[in-house]
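Example record

The entry below shows one chain as it appears in the dataset: sequence first, then structure tokens.
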Amino acid sequence: MTHERKQILNPDELVYLSLEQAANICCVSEERFGKWIEKGLVPVIEVQGQKLVRSRDLIQHLIHHNIRIPERLLQGSIKKILFIVMENDLPQAMTADIIWTLYRLRQHPAYVFDFIELDSTTELKIITFDPDLIFLLQHEEDTETARHSISRMLGKEVPIHLFPVNREIDIDLLFND
């Protein structure tokens, strides 16, 4: 690995990254990054003979593997949203609403999100994902207990919204807050 001065990237230049830029941003060697590509973990496109990585694909790779997303990869004011399923029995209508909301969010460049179940890896996900906003999916009875439990894991103030599974709620309204 060379010890050249790292290139300072403008957020507008981060839509597509060279393999070298992507490796530098992830703080891994180009060799390790190349292995991620060989394993099919990070999609690559070829433009005029140059291999490029789409920044959104790189972000998804980092989220999936519980690797902290470097701030310089988050262009502008991208919000990281974490959905935590506190219970396994989500009503079908709620599940459909969530799926459509996540689909719309995925198309919106101002959000990156992850969707997890409350389990022994929740704290790791909170630490590595470092969310700006959290939605808890659960019955209303244990609202404060759940918020307190998640707040202890955060180490900082992050808005935590309850997403009650036993009544309808306007999901889009929550995102406009």
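Notes for this example: The longest helix spans residues 92-107. The first strand starts at residue 16 and ends at 18.
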